[in-house]
Structures are given as structure tokens and as C-alpha cells.
Design goal:
GTP 3',8'-cyclase activity, 13-stranded mixed beta sheet, alpha/beta, binds S-adenosylmethionine, TIM Barrel, 344 residues, two-stranded antiparallel sheet, 11 helices
Amino acid sequence: MTHTTISPQTKSPIALTDSHGRTVNYLRVSVTDRCNLRCMYCWSADGMKFIPHENIISYEEIARLVDLSVDMGVSKVRLTGGEPFARRNFLDLVKMLLSRHPDLDLRLTTNATMMNGKAKELAALGVRHINISLDTFDRNKFQNITGRDMLRNVTRSIDDCLAHGLKVKINTVALKGINDDELPVFVNFAKSNPVDVRFIEFMPMGSCSAWNESNFWSADDILKEASKLVVLTKLEKGERRSGPAKLFGIEGGKGRLGLITPMSNHFCSSCNRLRITANGMLRTCLFSDSEIDLRTMLRKPSITDTDIANVMREANVNKPLGVELLNAKKQNEVALKRMNAIGG
Ligand code: SAM
């Protein structure tokens, strides 16, 4: 296959700016829709249909999209899934991207159950940041939420990442009646370890998750309860936010507490990201099911890099304000595709 490649000399970055004045510098790529866990809020009760293998974009195709995105001003890429470590030779992709773009801020989001001591290699390849999803520190509850008895794998991976100097963020889906009783455990974990523990409000994604409104645990509530347990401190101006997370220090603690509020306090006006799904579709907004088929373009020899870049740029111009979609539709009709395919 031949492609017109934009060489570094002729690069003329045209920023990915949209009609709301937002500029994209962050790309999230779902490397697979497969996952080894069966999380109650993510997994369909009647089984999950997976994307056929031939429709999953290859590592080379991902690298080509990353090359184009970097040319258009993207400086941060997150590899997610599904479970990225569930895809064969996942570290080959990490290596490929960092060897092409040594300055790229390449981050991972993982459930950390399949990392098996890979933190050392990740650090050596140049990965500095890793987000680890963990909703409970209770072994039985972990099994109930995820369908797998793998809590120990996760805690071991967290230790391993910290031992190799990776910056760790723990992402916890806030689930009232399920993990709200563990707030003291999470707060204490953030106090005793140099990690950010970030509670994420549950989002109505997909149609089959075992969740209902009574499980919604708002960030305001979490903050109020956490303040009774520790003294939360205001951080320096530049540190108060990390992406969509609002962060607090913990007096006498090593880590920080964060809240991500897609539902109670959306952050659409500052959204700086695009998503590539595991089957090579471009999604400009998490709450919109509208997708642009990049995979077909990637596989057509006559389509050049410039063609693909133009399509990405044009799609981004029309990037919606997700909150308007949420308000306009009934919540359970929004974003019918589940997180594993979009890339959570
Ligand atoms: N397997 C990887 C992991 O576990 O981090 C990456 C994919 S997973 C879909 C990414 C994150 O999305 C996880 O933290 C998961 O808990 C979260 N998530 C999934 N469905 C969600 C929902 N409906 N609302 C909020 N967070 C959700």
C-alpha cells in the first residue's frame, strides 16, 4: 500500500479547532473492544457482540492515525479499550508509537489485571502515566462487580507501577449502594500513597448495564463525605485540574483526591479530545453516536494522508457540545455504543 506521507519538513500543522472555539490536542484510541473483565455497568446482560477481528484497526493503522494527529497538534495520546493488555503484543504498539514520536505524552488506561510485571518495560519505553480502574478494595465485591477474582493482580500492578516511577491515577466509578461504603478506604489509600484517586460519576452508556438511577452517587456528595474524613486542601492554581478532574490535596497525605463530573457538572466547553474506536471510527463526542469511518479510508490505497487529515479536521469542526445532546435526548438513549468499543 502506498501513502502520501507528510514529511517533517513540509509539515504545516493546521490545528484541530471546532466551531465552538475548542482545540483538540488529545487523542484517545481504543485498541480493542475485548476485555477480560465483565463489569456490571459495562457488560451486557445478554452477552456482548464483539467487533469481528478483520474490522479491528491494526497497530500500523493506529500509528498512521497518530502520525496524522500529531501533525495536527495532538501532543497526548491515551491507549485504552476494552482492555488494552488483552490485545496480543500490546507493548509493540506502545513501542511503535514512542519510537515514531519520542516526545509524545503516551498514556494508558487499564484494569491492570493483565499487566504481570510490565511496569518496568513500560517505563523503559517512555510511558510516564497510567490510569488504573479500580472500584473496590474488597475481594468479594471486586468479584461481584467485575465477574473475576483478580483484585490481587490489580493491587500488585499498582505497587509495580509506583516502584518503577510511573504516575498512577486510580479511576473509581462512583456507585451508590455498591462502593460508597468504601469511601474511607479510597481516601486513606490516596492519603498513604502518591496516587490520584478519582471518582467518576456514572454515565448512561449503552443499553444493557446493570445500573439504575438509585446507584447515582454525585461528586458533591462524595466531596462532602470525604471532607468529614480528612482535611482536603486547595491546590495551586495549575494543579487544581487534571483533564476533566477537579483535584484536592489531602492534609498530611501523599496523594490527591479527584472528582470527574460528566453528569453533574459537564466539561464540554473545554473538551480537547477526539476518540478513535477499536474499529477505526472517529468519534468527536462521547455522548454522540455519530461516527466517521476512518478504517475504510485507511484501507483504500488511493486515499492519502492529506485526505484523511482533512476528513478528521472537518469532522472536528462539527464536534458537538455533548451536554446539549444529553439535554436533548432521554439519557438512556444517548451513546448507545458501550464504553469498551468507544474507549473509556
Ligand atoms: N479496560 C480499561 C480499564 O478498565 O480501565 C479501559 C476501558 S474501561 C471502559 C475505562 C473506564 O471506563 C473504566 O474506569 C470503567 O470503570 C469506566 N466506565 C465504564 N463504563 C462506565 C460508565 N457507564 N460510566 C462511567 N465510567 C464507566
